[in-house]
Each structure stands twice: as structure tokens, then as C-alpha cells.
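Re: [ENG-882] Designed sequences occasionally contain unexpected residues at chain ends

Forwarding the minimal case from QA. C-alpha cells:
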């Protein structure tokens, strides 16, 4: 395992802590101190919702495999479930000059969506009749990409396998180790899935996600200024914030957000059951769609992210995030201009696949930038994988420690019973 603070190697390759458990305990101690920070935030990327078991995806593929699958439709016979047809792909290349199978898109759907959204705006404003008439085609392809992402976020093994949700539940149980009286932590994500919400609900954790209401839940950014409180003393009207409360923010939208006509100030509605066929679902692999219709809630979410990161003595911990979003990166860079800011990155910065931004952060040799990566507890795992992080590298709640102790006792009892049977 590797643990780097700027130029200082806390855990080296030729470490004096050869046992993985000792190395992980060193990180847990460091993370426990960070968890009691006044302004604590987390950023989840697509890696957190991916879980490979025996090379089979039990969660949602990361952006690379997702883009490869999308572009793979055009290599041979069309996929019967393809949301963009070969005919649309050929017409887009002929009329607008955009090749959906270009190498730059085969690992990054975000880049493709950026190009498509910019092309839509350009062609819509163009005086060229041919380009102007191509707007409908471009919008069909944009909708096709959205439907593909939506389908991957709503259909898969995770519909019956709780492994990914359980990993998220472990993360939120870890947050319960924070000291009393601290500000609620913030969890930001670029993912569209509902793993966080399901984990929070199953843990019975109170949280705010920017929506208010019960039967009809509309987006209301003022919700982030509120928190739950409990009354300590009726006679003196003393109140205290409920422990464990979390602010949750989805920067790129969600599979259960739709835009619909409303008589209120905001028209973004949160649905209980996402519909993969609904054209109104508000998910974008890029937040660059900043028109009058789509400025909110994305602009509001990014404003909350910026406000939280640039506070003094703020700590941001990233997991499963590869630094591929310039909007997010720019806000993180703003944080680094503040002396008290600290950035913890669970990612291999020396990997050949590492984003150039990651290389720049590593080259800073800034002691406020921590990198944690390397071999995991078992073969095939990595220390910076979300499942490893939540199971071995974060502080455990008292409840979780009891569960672990009980499980260990069961294993020991079974082993002793087996040894007794073998001896008999």
C-alpha cells in the first residue's frame, strides 16, 4: 500500500509496516482525525458505483467501459437495445461531421456529450439551412446517449444484488463516528444512480438532497440551509442538531429527476420510481447544458460545492473520482488557494491511465494533497477501490465493531468445532 502526503511517504513500498493490517490501521487513524474536521466533504465518482466480482460487473460500469459499450454498437450488427442507431450515427457524420466512434469518445461519454451539446447550440443558431435542419438529429442522439446511461443506471445485477448498496451503507455508518456538535458533512457525487439514497434510507440516516415536499418533491435550493434539530429542554426551548445528518448533492443530475410544468418557482421533480423511457429525466454526463431550462438545479448544486470547498479549514476526500470533470476540478483548485484546505485522493497517481490533472496534483508535492493507493487486502483488490476503503480504511462505528466481533467469534467457534470433529 502507498500513502503519500505531498512529497512525504507515510507508507513506502519498502515500508517498515509489512503487514497489511498495520498499514491500514495507520490510514484509519489518519482518517479518524479528518472525520472530526469542522468542514468535511466527500466527492464520489463513477468508481464508487462499480463493483467487479470475478470480472462480472455487479454495479454500474465506470465511464471507460460505459463509453466502450456505447461505441461498440456500431462495430457490427446493431444491438437490439441500442438507443442510437447506425443510421443516426452515419447521418450525424455526414451532416454535422461528428463521428460517434472517434477514439476520443470511446473512453469518455462526457467528452461526447460536450461536443453534441455545443453542436446543438451552434446548429440551432446557424443561418446555414443544412446545419439548422440537423438540430433534430443531434437532439435525438443526445436523447439516445441519455437513455443509454439511464438504462445502465437502472438495470443490472444491482437490482437484486445489494453488494454496492451495502458498501455505501458502510460508508455512511463510518460518518456516525464523527464527534457531536460538528457541522453536517457534505457528500457530492457526479453519479446519477440511487445507491446513496438507498443506503441512507436503509441506514435510517436523516439527510437533505435539495428537494422538499412529500407527495410532490420539488427542487428547492434553500433546503441546503436547513438541518434537523431535536428539542433538549421544552421549558428553555433548547435545541440541538440531530447527529448523523448529511447534506447530499448530485452534481450531474439523477435518474429520478424530471422536469415538468409547475406552478411553483422550480420545475424539477424527484420521482420515487425512475422510468428509463422518460425523455424528461435530467441526467447529463456533463453539466455544460446551462440554458434557461437547465441552469437549475446544476448551477445550484455546483454553487453548494464551491461554497463548501472554499471554506477555511475545509477537507475534501475523493473516492472513485478520476478528475475528468473540469468544472469540478476548477473548484478543487480554488480550494487549494486557501492555506487551510486539505485534499485526500483515493487513486493511483502513478498509473498509466491517470488523468493529466492527477499528474499535476502529484507534481505539486503539496503536503495538503494526500494520495492513498496500492494493493488491497485480498488479491485482485486495490486499496483505493471503494469496497476496500469502506471495509478497511475508514473509522468504524461502535455498532459495526460489534458486528465484526460477533462475526469473528462465529468463525472461531466454527473452526474449533471443525478441529474437534477432525480430532474425533
Amino acid at each position: 500500500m502507498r500513502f503519500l502526503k505531498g512529497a512525504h511517504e507515510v507508507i513506502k513500498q519498502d515500508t517498515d509496516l509489512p503487514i497489511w493490517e498495520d498499514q491500514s490501521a495507520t490510514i484509519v487513524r489518519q482518517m479518524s482525525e479528518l472525520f472530526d474536521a469542522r468542514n468535511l466533504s466527500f466527492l464520489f465518482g463513477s468508481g464508487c458505483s462499480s463493483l467487479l466480482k470475478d470480472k462480472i460487473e455487479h454495479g454500474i460500469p465506470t465511464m471507460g467501459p460505459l463509453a466502450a459499450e456505447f461505441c461498440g454498437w456500431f462495430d457490427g450488427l446493431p444491438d437490439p437495445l441500442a438507443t442510437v442507431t447506425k443510421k443516426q450515427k452515419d447521418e450525424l457524420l455526414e451532416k454535422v461531421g461528428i463521428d460517434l466512434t472517434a477514439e476520443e469518445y470511446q473512453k469518455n461519454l462526457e467528452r461526447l456529450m460536450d461536443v453534441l451539446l455545443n453542436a446543438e447550440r451552434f446548429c440551432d443558431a446557424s443561418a446555414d439551412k443544412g446545419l439548422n435542419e440537423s438540430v433534430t438529429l443531434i437532439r435525438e442522439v443526445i436523447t439516445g446517449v441519455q437513455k443509454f446511461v439511464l438504462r445502465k443506471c437502472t438495470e443490472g445485477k444491482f437490482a437484486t444484488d445489494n453488494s454496492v448498496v451495502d458498501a455505501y451503507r458502510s460508508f455512511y455508518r463510518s460518518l456516525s463516528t464523527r464527534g457531536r456538535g460538528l457541522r453536517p458533512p457534505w457528500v457530492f457525487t457526479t453519479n446519477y444512480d440511487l445507491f446513496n439514497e438507498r443506503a441512507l434510507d436503509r441506514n435510517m440516516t436523516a439527510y437533505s438532497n435539495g428537494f422538499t415536499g412529500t407527495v410532490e418533491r420539488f427542487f428547492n435550493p434553500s433546503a441546503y440551509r436547513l438541518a434537523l434539530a431535536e428539542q433538549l429542554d421544552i421549558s428553555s426551548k433548547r435545541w440541538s442538531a440531530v447527529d448523523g445528518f448529511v447534506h447530499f448533492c448530485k452534481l450531474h443530475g439523477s435518474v429520478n429527476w424530471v422536469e415538468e410544468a409547475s406552478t411553483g418557482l422550480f420545475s424539477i421533480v424527484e420521482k420515487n420510481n425512475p422510468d428509463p423511457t422518460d425523455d424528461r429525466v435530467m441526467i447529463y454526463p456533463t453539466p455544460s447544458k446551462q440554458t434557461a431550462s437547465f441552469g437549475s438545479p446544476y448551477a445550484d448544486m455546483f454553487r453548494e460545492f464551491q461554497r463548501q470547498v472554499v471554506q477555511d479549514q475545509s477537507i475534501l476526500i475523493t473516492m472513485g473520482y478520476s478528475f475528468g470533470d473540469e468544472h469540478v476540478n476548477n473548484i478543487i483548485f480554488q480550494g487549494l488557494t486557501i492555506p487551510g484546505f486539505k485534499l485526500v485522493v483515493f487513486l493511483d497517481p502513478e498509473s498509466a491511465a491517470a488523468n493529466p490533472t492527477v499528474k499535476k496534483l502529484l507534481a505539486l508535492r503539496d503536503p495538503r494533497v494526500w494520495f492513498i493507493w496500492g494493493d488491497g487486502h485480498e488479491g485482485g483488490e486495490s486499496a483505493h477501490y471503494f469496497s476496500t476503503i469502506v471495509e478497511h480504511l475508514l473509522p468504524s462505528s461502535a455498532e459495526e465493531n460489534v458486528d465484526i466481533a460477533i462475526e469473528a467469534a462465529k468463525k472461531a467457534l466454527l473452526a474449533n468445532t471443525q478441529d474437534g470433529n477432525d480430532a474425533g
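QA comment: On inspection the terminal residues look reasonable. Residues 289-294 have pLDDT under 50 and may be disordered. Proposing we downgrade this to a documentation issue.
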